[in-house]
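Exercise 3.2. Students should predict the tertiary structure of the chain below and write it as structure tokens, then compare their answer with the key that follows.

Predict this chain's 3D structure.
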Amino acid sequence: MALMDRQHKTSAINTDKRWNIFVIFMLSAVTLMIYARTVDHGFIINWDDDKYIINNLDIQAVNFANFKALFSKHYVGNYAPVHLMSYMLDYQIWGLSPAGYHFENILWHAINGFLVYRLLLKLDIPALPAMFGATLFTLHPVQVESVAWVAERKNVLSAFFFLLAIITYIDYRKAEIGGLRSYIFSLILFTLALLSKSIAVVFPFVIICYDYCFRNISGRFKFIDKIPFFLLALAAGVMAVYTQNKGNNINMSDLPGGTPLNALWTMMPVFVSYLKDLFYPFDLSPYYMVKIRKAVDLTAILSSGFVFCLTLFGILSMKGWPRLFFFISLFVLSLLPIMQIIPLLSTLKNDRYLYFPMIGFAGVAGMLLTELMQVSVRIRNLTVVVTVTACLVLGYTTYYQTLIWKDNITLWRHALKKDQDNMLAWLMLAKGYTKMGNSREAVTAIRTFYALESKQGPLRGCWEGEW
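Answer key:
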């Protein structure tokens, strides 16, 4: 591990342009190949695609009134005008043909993969491990929900601006001249990230971690230049609380289990399950029925103990391996907003919540590969073989995962294969069959839903009220 903080002479800036072109081509080809089938998919009705696009008149014409609406209204409990503007552009080109919307999601995701590569290079990870880290980010199965679901455009779009904001902030901290321009660009890009999805509020904490961990290349730590970022994050956070309360009726009384302590016992196993999904992404679902804990149990204790040990390891890494600490911090910080510290979400676990944390995970993977490849020629070759094999397995799994997002029925049937007692899956199937005119299947699904509700209690969220 001692090698982790070695200054690598071959940096992002000096990497051969032909190699960069190769990486762009490779990441684009991999993304298109894996996600190509999603272009043939339809919209997921009753699961936000209808509210954001199909039934949203505000995106169906480019005029002042619609722009005013996008910047003055919230949709599905979110204030994300830049996200909606991307649909407005799509509608002018594709109308309501879903193929174009899906293709744009794929395009944004491919670009994000290259930006992750550039970020890792800027953080002193050599070119080959950086490419593998970016490939992991691009083709990991947990990314499918954000890319294959049109309504989650906000995730990939916000990540695009978020990554550019970090890269330009690093340029600002490294610059001897022209730093002010990079700083202003970083502020603008951060604002656009917030206006795409509020998850980007973690950015000020990320750049504080960067300044601490990379003091040898970024210079003396500053706080005053973070103030504008914190003010923007605070405004976005207040807006998120307001819109979730108004749009989805989510407030502080909606903490899982009713109290902060019960929320902790509930969410610790969820956090551990996210870590499991990173290393074993073969049991994914569009919706997870999370057990609400109103008292501590063995699972909560073991999960909390595991998280404590990881936290201790992270703290210990601050001194000896600051770069590792930065990537771990990026991962954890990106997960904190969805850990129900403030109850802003009607769902407790979703694959899409890992899109931003995967940036940090890609960095950790890049550092690990860097260390292994410097041990010996034999270990380096073995590492490359194992890494390529892992990428092939993950790529195949991701391709299969994209197929389940074909339409409502396929999606929720898959959810039931993973959990026959998934209440939301039965409810969504009932709605899907109703729209298809298949009353027999619809009645069976809704009866099953109500039977499960009588045993498990009401479904968390507002979906039933939309029936």
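Discussion points: The chain is about 65% helix and 0% strand. The two ends are 55 Å apart (CA to CA).
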